[in-house]
Design brief:
293 residues; alpha/beta; Rossmann fold; six-stranded parallel beta sheet; three-stranded parallel beta sheet; 16% strand
């Protein structure tokens, strides 16, 4: 069993981006600049956005964090995104999800200019992804592809089982694993809360992507010997032994599943770090495309 180490792979991606960024700037290109919009005080979102900003600095990008109270009105958000769309120095815009219930998430995402949609959530980006056209891929699925690539994991002809059908992970990774390239060329089944025989389907999976957000959902008796298991779960559960009062749990019962796997990604230290690496890749590409115009 080999651990898919998000720390090692994301560091390799970041080292490469740091070098490419310095090269881009030395050739007269622009410094990549990411604008992150954070609304409200969701603890997990605060942590993710702080990490995104910190990682931008690490690779030599500029970043701007724009914060709003939960009570922010839609008009303010719309005008903020319009300003960022029009600002030539901004290469990438992300709106951290989930948004407060009072705000229409789809409407806000669709306002981001597709050329700056480094999260890959805009309907235009998703449409291009489905057609296999060049575009920004959603960060977590893209991070998973980078991880499979790094460990040279064979995907062609494999049976992939994706548990979860969110727009952020489940649905896009199912399309990407199914495309006619590497990583891809899998036969993919997408499972969800209404799937019958989930255990039997999972047992057939050569590759299992657990992305449903239920801590330790995937148990040892749902995984076949030699499977590749990628854990996308990242749920905070109360833990009085921790200073923070919580610990982070994945969607996989790691202790009991790991011995059966050929490869498995841990939580923390797996896919979470790859999400940021992928976002940085998209932001670099946005700046590079702009520099070449
Ligand atoms: N919330 C959970 N994952 C993501 C992500 O990849 N991007 C944004 N913007 N919000 C998220």
């Amino acid at each position: 069993m080999q651990i898919l180490d998000g720390k090692i792979v994301s560091q390799a991606v970041k080292d490469d981006l740091k070098q490419k960024t310095a090269e881009l700037i030395s050739k007269g290109g622009k410094t990549p600049h990411l604008a992150a919009i954070l609304i409200g005080n969701n603890g997990a979102s605060e942590t993710y956005v702080a990490s995104k900003v910190k990682n931008c600095e690490e690779v030599g990008y500029n970043s701007s964090l724009i914060r709003f109270e939960t009570s922010v009105d839609e008009a303010t958000l719309i005008s903020t995104i319009e300003k960022l769309n029009a600002d030539d120095d901004i290469d990438g815009i992300l709106v951290q999800l989930p948004l407060p219930k009072s705000i229409n998430e789809d409407k806000i995402i669709s306002l981001i200019h597709p050329d700056k949609d480094v999260d890959g959530f805009h309907p235009m980006s998703i449409g291009k992804m489905i057609q296999g056209l060049p575009t920004f891929l959603p960060a977590t699925p893209y991070g998973i592809l980078l991880m499979l690539e790094h460990y040279k994991i064979e995907t062609k002809g494999k049976y992939a089982v994706v548990i979860g059908r969110s727009n952020i992970v489940g649905r896009p990774i199912s399309i990407l694993l199914n495309r006619n390239t590497y990583p891809g060329n899998c036969t993919v089944t997408v499972c969800h809360s209404h799937t019958h025989n989930l255990k039997e389907i999972c047992l057939q999976g050569d590759i299992i992507i657990a992305a449903l957000g239920i801590p330790e959902f995937l148990k040892n008796d749902m995984v076949k010997e030699g499977a590749v298991v990628i854990d996308v779960g990242i749920t905070r559960v109360p833990d009085t032994t921790k200073k923070s009062g919580f610990s982070i749990k994945g969607d996989v019962d790691f202790t009991n599943v790991a011995p059966k796997c050929s490869y498995i990604s841990p939580v923390p230290g797996g896919v979470g770090m790859m999400t940021i690496a992928a976002l940085l890749m998209n932001t670099f590409n946005a700046a590079k495309i702009k520099s070449e115009k």
